Each structure stands twice: as structure tokens, then as C-alpha cells.
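Two folds, back to back.
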Amino acid sequence: MATFLYKLGRLSFRRRHFVALIWVALLTLAGVGAASAPAAGNSSFSIPGTEAQKAFDLLEERFPGVSADGATARVVFKAPSGEKMTDPGNKATVREAVKELADGSEVARVTDPYQAKAVSKDGTIAYAQVSYKVSGMELEDSSRDALQDSAQDARKSGLTVEIGGDALQTVPHTGSSEIIGIAVAAVVLVITFGSLVAAGLPLLTALIGVGIGVSAITALASVLDLGSTTSTLAMMIGLAVGIDYALFVVSRYRAELAEGRDREEAAGRATGTAGSAVVFAGLTVVIALVGLSVVNIPMLTKMGIAAAGTVAIAVLIALTMIPALLGYAGRRVKPMGEKGKRFGRAPKKPERPNLGTRWASFVVRRPIAVLLLGVIGLGAAAVPASSLELGLPDDGSQPTSTTQRRAYDLLSEGFGPGFNGPLMVVVDAKKSDDPKAVFGDVGDEIKGLKDVVTVMPPAPNKAGDTATITVIPGSQPSSVTTENLVHGIRDAGTGIKADTDANVLVTGSTAMNIDVSEKLNDALIPYLVLVVGLAFLLLIVVFRSILVPLKAALGFLLSVMAALGAVVAVFQWGWLSGLMGVEQTGPVMSMMPIFMVGVVFGLAMDYEVFLVTRMREAYVHGEKPSQAIVTGFRHGARVVTAAAVIMMAVFAGFIGSSESMVKMIGFGLAIAVFFDAFIVRMAIVPAVLALLGRKAWWLPKWLDRALPNVDVEGEGLRPDSGRGDTDRELVRA
């Protein structure tokens, strides 16, 4: 591996014009494709195998022309103090608004509050339900404008008018904080390298990689049914790893220059050593992201594969474009520790050890104390995770400044909290002798269940063999009580099927959220076993050790549990919620645990590979285990620290998003990188390695013979290996 990448790095350095042209051409091609491709809509959201999805599919079949997953909006009206919605003037205003809403080309139907009895008991609140032919993300802007214009017209008469539902759903924006994250990354790079040119290389290549990846996703969005939010994860991960991978190669290049090598040789050796670590670090991230497909949620699968593609691009750019750009930069990228000396002259040795050396020496002397302190600290941070509550966001989790949240609160005030999450019960009585009687029996059965406020009369289809029954729970959609009611209806349906041969299915957004949460929970353990297992095998090949990969996996579990605890503390308990811009606390997003397991594991292995390969390299080259730890930190601690700060800054930039899901992901990944890089990899890892000594690098002889020798530590590049001159001749040939 190291020898091949060494030759690739030298070739890219010498043929830099050709390499740069290829990447610019790819960026141009992807950009043209994105510009000419049709606009992306919302990826069709389906959850195969769940009861809610089966009910949606049945509705599409038995109620032709009615879009089961079409967008909906509830226009909520509240009368001024002392008035009623049934007053003639207010009634006329509402009916005029209903008339305006019905004129939309994408509107399927609009209900009149007075005909549908959608007026609260005290007469102060009413709502009109608007159903659309397409999903919320596919709505034309003109339809949203018409919806908001009708509400504004009604407000002129003195009514309070708010709009809820998914019809106002838009692509989330991240705001200026994302740019701030990139700016922080730029500052860290300048401090790390002490040069604007050297600092600019990782930023430039990361932006090119993300540009190619996101443009390709945009270009293929319509063909592959990729939603407009698919690129969010790709941008987040691609930008972070793109900067980090380039940072490691450039840093190693400067270290090779400091040892007196010429620029082309330094570029080759940097690619052969740091580039090998980049390849395997990238592989762990790709495995974690592609592994999301085991959850069998198409949207999550597409997001994972798209992000994995962007990571693969980042790896290729680090291996080829970085050496090429180093060739263009020439003497403007100086040797490590050198500010003004000429190339080819070794710098003076520093008078005192750097911070990484001093810290590693301290850990080696006090491994037990450092280990206990790190484990106890992460354990304390993980405590809130024990009260983790999962759910999917609805309008109730929106900021109070939004019209969706105000509409949600008005409906709760007028009709009860469960009104915001109605359940749709679909009764398939096609095989029953008396479908009409079955519909009535199902309604009566549901009325007898706990926490049921209202059961609407059955609404059969034209054939009379299938009906929908709307059930209003007494509790809010995200509550455990509502979840129990859904399971209660399904249990009752089992008995009805045995007696009448009719299928009773529960669907609707609330039931769908419950099914998604359960599906994600069920997939967590298989996903964890798959991803950690594959990465464990990969790390055995990289480190040629059993205990080092095992320690890496256990350290990851500590960091991910601590990060989940921090997410619960902020987004569920409300700690520091004001600082994070969290206006509404509530259950943690259902996909957060499995998402963090995948992404954080991949990123955690990045630091493990980059830091420990340097220790492994020193150990293989003859140093004692304790000294190898210090050597690894002397060369790698500064760069790993810079990489972690950069990645935290990039992720933290997404905390400014208008979408609560993106905000939570940004915070969760940022805090996870902090825990993993600075506590696990910088403290716990060297402490464990110091305690293990030579045992850390033990590998059974039979396994050592069976494993391929990938030479990540660059043993084949040593002068005494006899390969250096041969490789040089092969490259020139």
C-alpha cells in the first residue's frame, strides 16, 4: 500500500498539470450537470415492512385519486376577544378564505369548518383542512404563497390566523454559522502551518471535493429519487473529512521536508505514509455510512451512500490533488519548524519538547490516573442517556416564533393536545361478508380504548369494501400514551381479523413516526455489529494487532454514549438550550442514536488511525512501546488536535440551521468529536497502550501469516529496504 501510494504521490507531483486538469474537469462536469438537471423534489418517503406503510399503500389502491401522502395544511382561525367564530362577520371571512384556498391548481380539497363541525366547543377557534395532490416538498412556491396570502387576508378582519401542517415544509437553511465554521477551520489551519499557502490547500481541496459530490447528487437527484435534503449530510461529512485528510498529508509533507528530502520525494513519502492512513480512515467512514442501508429506510440509505461517495472523493483528492498542488506551491510550503530556511537543510532540533511530547510523557508515567479520570468523565457525561426518549419532530417542536407552532398551540387549546396527531385507521373488509357492519364494530371497539377522545364515522370507498376511521387521541402526538393507543388499536385489530377476516391497519403521521422509531431501534444492534465488526477486521489488518482495534472499538462506545448524553441534556432536558438556539425541548430524534453510531464511529476511527499508525510506525522501526507512544504524539498530536478542532467547527456550523433535525445532528457530531479526539484518543488510548506495553501489538502467528501486508507504516520506503531506488526508477519509467 505505502509503496503504491508513494509512486502515486510522486507521479501526481510531477504531472501536476494533468492531475489538476482532471479534477477541474470533474468539477465543471458535475456543475454543468447540476445546473441543467431538473429541480429535486422530496424523495418519496417510505418505510418498507411497517404497518403504517402497508396502510398507505392500501389507500393508494382502494381510494384512487386520493394522494395518501399528499401535503396537508390546517388554517386555524381564532376570534378576537369577546367574539365567536360563529358570528356572521367571522363566518363570512372564513368562507371567503376557504373559497380562495380551493382555487389552487395543486389543491385536492378544502373542508369548510362549519360543515365539517371543525369549531371548538367554546366557539372561539375553528380550522379549515387543505389537502394537496403532492407532498409538502413538491409543492410549488405559488401554492405556498396562495396559502399564506389567504391567511393574511383573513387577518385584516381582526382574526388570528395561523397555518400548520407540512404544506409549509421547505428545505432547511443553515444560516451564516456554517460560514463561521469554515472561517474557524481556516484560522486553525493558519495557526497549525504558519503559512497562508499551506493552510489554503486543505480548504481548497475540501471545497472542490464537496463541490463535486454535492453537484453530482444534485445532477442525479431526479433520476435516483434523491430528496433535496440528501446533500446535507454529504456536505457536512465531506467538508469535515476533506479538510482533515488534506491536513494530514500536508503536515506529513512538511515533516518529510524537515528531514532534508527534496520536494518530490517528500510528496511521495507523505502520500505513502499519511496517505495510507487516509485510505483506511476513509474506508471506515464509508463502511459506517453505507452500513446505514441495513436499517431499510430508503431515505436514510440514500443519504448514507451519497455521503460515502463524497468521502471517497475526499480520499482521492488527498492522494492526488494535494501532491499536485504541493508541486505548484513550491517553496511557499516550508518544512515543519522552519520559517525562513532553505529547502534541503535540516532544521535545528527544538530546545524543549513540544506540548504533544510533554503530554504523552505524562500519560506514560501516570496511565492509571489518566485512564480512570477519562473513563469517569465520559461516564458522567453519558448519564443523561439513561433517560433518552425517542421520537420524530412535528410542529410542536418548532420554535414559538413560527406560524406552524402557533397553529399547533391553537389547535391544542381549542380541541385538545391529541388533535394535532390524529390516527387514521384503515379497515380492509374485502373478504368479510358484511363490510358495513365490520366498519361499525371497529369504530365501537376503538371507542372503548383508553385515551380516545373522538372516533369519526367510517368513510368507505366507492366499492364499499374499505373504510377510513379518524381517531383523535387524548394526548399529544409524541407522548408514550399515544404510542400505547396505537398498539392498543392494533391489538384489537388482531381479534377483529380472527372474527371477521378483516384487516385493521393504523397509519397517519403519528403512527408512521412510531413505526419509524421502532424500526430504527430494532436495527441499532445489527447495525452496530455489522459496522464495528467490519471496521474491527479492517483495523486488525492496519495495526496487525488484536488489542489495539478492540481498544479502539471500546473507546468509541464511550464517546458515543457520552455524546448521546450531551444531546439528551441539551435537546430533551433543556440544559444550555438558549445558547444552542433550542426554543423547544422534547424527545430526541429517533434516528439520532443509529446515525451517531455510524458517523461518529467512522470519524473516531479517523483519529485512531492517524495517531496510532504513527506509534505503530515508530514501534516497527525499533522504538520501545512507551517511547513509540511519545513519538506518535510528538509527530501527530498537533495535527490531530487541529483536525479535531476543524471538524468540530464545521459540524458546529450546522447548529445554526432552521431545521431542528440538522441542528441536533450538528451539535451531536461536534460534541462527539470533542469527546473522542480529546478524551478517548488523546488520553485513554495512550494510557491503555502504556499499560499494555508490547502486548498491545501482539498478533497470533497464524493470523499474521494469513493477513495481507498493507505496510501502512511505510516500512517499504525505508532506505535500507531496497525499494526506494527501485520505486523511483519505476515512477520515472
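---
second:
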Amino acid sequence: MSARPRFSRQEWLFSLKSFFAAMLALYLSSRFGLPRPFWSMMTAYIVAHPLAGHVRSKSLYRLCGTVLGCAATVVLIPSLSGSPLLLSLALALWVGSCLYLSLMERSARSYAFMLGGYSAALIGFPLVDAPAAMFDIAVARTEEIAIGIVCASLVHSIVLPASLAPSLVGLIDRTLGDVRRWAGDLMSPGADDEVRKRLAQDRRRIATDITQLRLLATHVPFDTGGLRWTRHAVGDLHDGLAALTPSLSALEDRLAALRDATRGVPDPVARAVAQGSACLDADAPAGALESVRAAARAESADRRNSSWVRALNIDVAAHVDELVAGWLRCNALRADIAAGLAGHAPPPKRGEASRPSVLHVDRGLALRSAFTVVLSTCTACAAWIFSGWRAGSSMAMAAAVFCSFFATMDDPVPGMHKFLVALLWSMPVSAFYILGVMPLAHDFGMLVLCIAPLFLVVGGYLARPASSLTALGMFFGVAGTLALHDIASADWVSFLEGNLALFAGALIAARVTAIVRSVSSEWSARRIHRATWRDLSGMAARPKRALARDAFAGRMLDRIALLVPRTAGGAADQGSEAVQLAMRELRIGASIGVLQQHRHLLPETPVRELLAALERAFLAQATESLTRLDALLPQIDRLLALCLASTGCEPAVSALVGLRSDLFPSAPSDLQP
């Protein structure tokens, strides 16, 4: 665990609240006469979290998942108990299906699907020999888990509750500050290595923070303070920050193109960008946006410039306009959140209802994870059936639970091995408690005194992210043994068999995962890029999909946040190049969205042919086919020249400039109509 032995005040508080909730759940389950009260104690620890909102959301979804798993158990076990092989396959397929749904739902709701899967394994496998008692045992397990959930929710919500508001508001303010600093850095000299490094850090941090904000926002409705009344503003602010990012990235790229084309940013453009950057200050005047629009369009209307420079100026003007308008909206939403936290009535929703954000999901990897848990569970069941081992049910349970716990990692094996080591260390502690201490505890008070030293210390380590995995392994080793064994009749033989079966099931899960499921970070990064090209191809083919560009921006920022840790261990520039590539893909998607939105301003045949060519080219990139994009450049140039010769086509010009700059960054600056 952690090398630092002393716990902070918050860690002690979390440990004390968790222990009190667990003891309350244990006491109530015992008084109600439930058969395995230690299930309630274990549940109270599993749903514990330093933030009360997390506890409440986790409790709700755990209860839903438990009911779902119990229902599946009641249906499957009695009807298939006469065929052990078929029953094993059915339970394994159930666990795999629930794990797949869990991986496809990257929010707090995913917990319900995961619990629905391995709850069926935890309840069903020990009762395959007693199908007649299945309904009663399933109801008892649900009651035990529900008591643990209720006790944890009450204690963490009433006793000095920790609100999500400081963490969420701090993250929002940090992201707004990063956006402001990125905008301020845009006009810095392009050859300054320090500025380039700072811009790269800004991009990575903003992408990570916006994704973290999206995940934290799912817990806002469960918060104990006034933050829950601001959930619409929090969601809209996330969407607004996601929409700002492609504008900032495109503005950075176009200013660099202007420097190359004119050997420096023209003074009117520099003044427009500087005014736009000033509008991002908190004390900006109310009419600042209109003055920025006028300054940005002044240079774009100058016919003395070349066609390409004029097009770049139009694009810069459009992105400065988007940036300032989006920033003012984000500031208004931040003020709404502050008003909600102060206890004021929630303001009316600003603008139209936004579509729910969709984070990146890898269906192929999710199917692979589901197949791994099915194969691991079936392997453990086969070893149990053919060996006739009476403790084999614990082996099947461990295989299902282990594969589910670590399914979100690229390579789950190191985490599994770390957990296995913690389980091994927990075995002598479990033996001491279940065989030496528990038989001597003749009343509830003595029982609390006996287990308090261990669980208070483990609870403190659970509050530390660096040691939480090892502490969780120690906790599951001890608490799981208490929950799965009958304390009154436990002996050395049953204890050793049960713990060896748990260890064997975990080992089976680790070995099957190493063979079937483990992938490298580079492999995952390539799949993320291919998924982006498929999205771009779909945006070029379907106008409705392209118009949801804010949702695409949120998904792309999530992909950038996923790419950052996967490229951090490579070469020095590998992570920066991966983020730059993802930012380029984000800008391409934004350009396609604008082009689809304003295609009615353009001649129908050329724009339809260009979009069809983009669809084919992006799909080829997704399949990693050897294809060249050079044929797209003349089409873009012809359409761009037509737009420059017309009036009222500025949005289309901006979109076409974006496509040309991002697809062909080294193309000559002279347009060939």
C-alpha cells in the first residue's frame, strides 16, 4: 500500500463513515434474521466514496444491478439445473452480455449492467445444487445488499457530507482558465518553442478536463447540495466548452497559415484577434462582440489580397466570431451555476435542448472483453464440473468477477496480478479472523471491536487513489471470506478450499485475459483514429449526422483524453503528435458540419460530388487502405473559388478553407479555379 503511514483528516473521516455504515448494515441484517449479514457490510464498503453524490448514484445503480442479476438467477437456475454444462454456458453468456452493455455505457449507469452480470454469478453458482431454494436465497441476497446500500447512502449523506460542488466548480474554472490562456497564446510568436510547448499542454489539459467534466456531471443529480439544481447548466457548459475547442484549434492553425502566406499576421487581423482575446476577460464590455465582428471582417473584405489570403481572413473572422460568442455563453452558464449554488431558483434553460453527449466506445474491444469473461467463466465451470470440487462455485464466481472488474483496461493483466497479490496477503488475515477471532465474539459489540482495527486501516487506504487497488484486494479477501462462509461451522478444510478456489478462479481469469483480451496502447490508439475516420465518413454522407457537430466535438475531446495516457510512455514527441492529429480530425469534422449546414449556398452538383469524394476518402483511411487524397484538392479549390466570387458565402468559405488546410497543409497557396 502507500508508503505514507499517516492518514489525513479526510481519509480518517471517510474510513470512519464507511465503517459506521458497514456496522449499521451488519447490525440491521442480523436483527432482521438474514442468513448472510456480512453481505450487507461488504456492500456498504463497496459503494463508499469520499463524495456523497458518488455514493448515492453508485447505490442506486448497484441496487438496480442486483435486482437484475437476481431476476436472471431465478429464471436460469431452476430451469437449467438438470444440465450443468448448459447452465454454466447460460450464466457465462449472461455475464458477458451485461459486461458488453456496461462497456458501451461510459457513465455511472454502466455500474448497473456490470452488477447485473456478476451478481447472477455470485448468487447463482453456489446454489446450483439447491435450485428449490433459489428464490428465497435470491430475495435474501437482495435484501442484504439493499440494507448495505441504504445504510451507506444515509451515513455518507447525513454525517458531514462531502459535496461534489468544490471538485466540479474547480474543474470548470480550471478549464475556462485554460481556454482563456490558449486564446491569449495564439498571438504569441510562432517560432517560440516555449509557446508551442504551452499550447500543446493547453490542448491536452483541456481535452482531459472536458471529458472529466462530462463524467462528473452524471453524478450531479445525486449531489447533497445545491449543485443538483444546476445539472442542465453543467451539461450545457460542457457542450459549450467542447464547441469552443475546434474554434480555438482552427484559429491557431489559420493564423499559422497566414504567417506563412504573408510573412506575418496582417495588422487588422492581429487587432481583431487581440480584441477577441480581450473579450474573454471577465470585465469585457457588453458590446464587445459586435466590435470584434466588424474588425475581423474589415480585412477579409479587402480585394487587394490574394484569393487564398482573403479566404484565410474570412475563416479567421468566422472563428473569432464563434470563439467570442461561445465564450460569452459559457460565462453566462458559469454565472447560472454560481446562482444555483447560492440557493437561487434555477434559471431557464438557455437555447434549445442539447442532445446527450456520446463518448467514444469501442464495440470490437467490448465484444472481446465479453468473450473473455464468457471463456473464463466456462473454463472455471468446466474445471469445477469435471473435478467434482465442492468449492468449485467460488472458482467460477471469481473468474466472472475478475474479468468484469478489469475490463476497461487495455492490458488488465498487471492490475489482476496486483489484486492477486493482495488476495494472497489477505488469506492469513482471513484465517485469523474467521477461525480465531469470530468464534470468540459472542455479541455484536465484541464483533465490532474485533474487526474495527483492520477495516479502519483498510478504509483509510481505500481513500487514496495510489493504494486503492491493493486495499480493495485486501478488503475483498477478508470481507468476501466472511460473506461466503458460515462462521459458525467454518473449519480449516472449508476455509482453505474456499480461498484456494477464489485464487484459482482469479488465476484462470488472468491467464485467459492474457491470451485473448490484452492489447497494447498503440493498438488501442490506432483503433481510436480509425473510429474517427469512420465518423468523418458518416458526417460527409449524412447531413443530419454532420449537423450534430457539438456531439462530435465532445466525442473527439474524449478520444484525445484517451490518447494522452496511451501515448505518454512512448517517444518524447509521440504524445504531442497524437494530440495534433486528433485536433486536425476534430477541425475536419467541424468543417464538414459547417459545409453541410450551408450547402444550400453552393451549387448543388459540385458540393455533392465533393462530399461523396470525402466520404470515400475517409472510409479508405478508416480501413487503412493505400489511397491518396490528392484528387480532393482540385475539387476543394474549384468550389472555394466559386464561393469567393459570390456574396453571402462566408460560412462555406470558412468550411472549405478548413478542409484545404487540414487535409493538405503543404498545398501551394495559390487557388486554381
